[in-house]
């Protein structure tokens, strides 16, 4: 599979139409202070930068008119600039036909956001809806990616140094309005490579990462603070996934009751008269929401030993793999869940995110579309259409 992905990437670069552009005509984000062209940088393959021709060129402080803006593959550009090159071979986006190959070449979440912003700014796509249609993304997904540009300039420049951080990991940081707390979360992400959920837990639990009684924050404290944060509406507002697409009957009632800070969730299980299967399942959910991914994985696997067709356990086992970084195991679990419960929109979205993290953007787009259609079908059924 890895060899196949390398071939696909190579094909993209081989078919990019390149042209010579003067460096002085290009506006770009300068490298952060910690960047330098060292031996490790020199080993990186040279990937042709992606530029956009600005419809309204801007004059810089030096009096030079910047006719182009650098969108992708900054490290390649920086290396050429440091060597004193006067021109660079690059792909220039001028029309809709250039959008797909430019987007397929992007591997960095900030650069993807820069590309989307430039396409909209220069009216190469009329709006976010049209862009989502072209790329096979939901409009909410387009908004999530563009939200990265809300981060301070120095953070965005640091993110250009690595392609290993995803928009999903940055999402909780983007939401924070306190600059000091945002900075602390960002530094944690860079140093520890935390998942999006771990960053969200950090945001919700305070600096001490403990609740008032000295215990680790439980789901009762954290769910109200951070929500699920995996979808937003067209205006960029958080929308928690509907648990009814994963759970049914009494289990759903218990999960919703867990949003209350009053009482213990195990008491809710007993009050609802649920059996051992549901109680164990909710134990796994509680472990997962508290960042105890390995413990949650063991809990869900214990369920599946005796209940191999229990789709919710496969779904949450897939979430464990996604959040802990075991993407292959996550994909296997999520596909198994879909075999048992085809068309589950939450599972389709989760699988799309896992595929996207593996840079399998074509497959990811397909599952995002399937999820959108599944939700539409559910709405039509509920409305009686």
Explained architecture:
This protein is α/β, with parallel strands linked by helices and about 375 residues long. It folds into three domains: about 150 residues, no CATH class; about 55 residues, no CATH class; about 140 residues, Tetratricopeptide repeat domain (Serine Threonine Protein Phosphatase 5, Tetratricopeptide repeat, Alpha Horseshoe), CATH 1.25.40. It has 20 helices and five strands. A five-stranded mixed β-sheet has the order 1-5-3-4-2. α11 packs across α12, α13 runs antiparallel to α14 and α16 runs antiparallel to α17. It is elongated and about 75 Å long. The two termini are about 45 Å apart. About 40% of the residues are buried. The N terminus is likely disordered.
- Mean of all residue-level pLDDT scores: 75
Shape: elongated
Strand content: 5-15%
Percent helix range: 55-70%
- Give a count of the beta strands, DSSP E runs of length 2 or more: 5
């Amino acid at each position: 599979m890895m060899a196949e992905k390398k071939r696909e990437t190579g094909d993209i670069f081989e078919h990019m139409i390149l042209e010579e552009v003067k460096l002085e005509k290009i506006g770009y984000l300068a490298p952060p202070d910690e960047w330098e062209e060292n031996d490790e940088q020199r080993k990186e393959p040279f990937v042709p930068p992606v530029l956009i021709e600005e419809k309204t060129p801007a004059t810089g402080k030096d009096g030079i008119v910047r006719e182009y803006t650098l969108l992708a593959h900054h490290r390649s550009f920086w290396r050429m600039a440091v060597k004193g090159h006067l021109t660079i071979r690059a792909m220039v986006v001028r029309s809709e036909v250039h959008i797909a190959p430019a987007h397929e070449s992007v591997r960095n979440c900030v650069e993807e956001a820069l590309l989307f912003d430039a396409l909209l700014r220069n009216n190469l796509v009329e709006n976010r809806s049209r862009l989502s249609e072209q790329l096979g993304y939901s409009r909410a997904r387009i908004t999530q990616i563009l939200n990265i540009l809300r981060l301070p300039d120095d953070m965005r420049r640091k993110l250009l140094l690595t392609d290993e951080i995803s928009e999903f990991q940055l999402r909780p940081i983007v939401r924070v309005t306190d600059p000091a707390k945002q900075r602390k979360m960002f530094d944690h992400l860079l140093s520890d490579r935390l998942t999006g959920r771990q960053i969200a837990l950090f945001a919700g639990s305070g600096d001490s990462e403990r609740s008032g009684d000295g215990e680790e924050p439980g789901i009762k404290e954290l769910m109200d603070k951070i929500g699920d944060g995996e979808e937003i509406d067209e205006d960029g507002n958080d929308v928690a996934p509907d648990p009814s697409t994963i759970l049914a009957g009494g289990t759903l009632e218990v999960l919703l009751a867990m949003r209350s800070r009053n009482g213990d969730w195990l008491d809710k299980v007993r009050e609802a008269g649920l059996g051992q299967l549901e109680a164990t399942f909710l134990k796994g959910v509680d472990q997962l929401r508290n960042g105890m991914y390995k413990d949650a994985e063991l809990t869900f696997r214990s369920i599946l030993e005796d209940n191999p067709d229990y789709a919710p356990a496969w779904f949450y086992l897939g979430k464990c793999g996604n959040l802990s970084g075991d993407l292959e195991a996550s994909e296997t679990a999520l596909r198994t869940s879909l075999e048992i419960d085809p068309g589950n929109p939450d599972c389709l979205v989760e699988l799309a995110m896992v595929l996207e993290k593996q840079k399998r953007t074509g497959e990811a787009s397909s599952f995002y579309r399937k999820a959108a259609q599944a939700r539409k079908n559910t709405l039509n059924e509920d409305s009686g259409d």
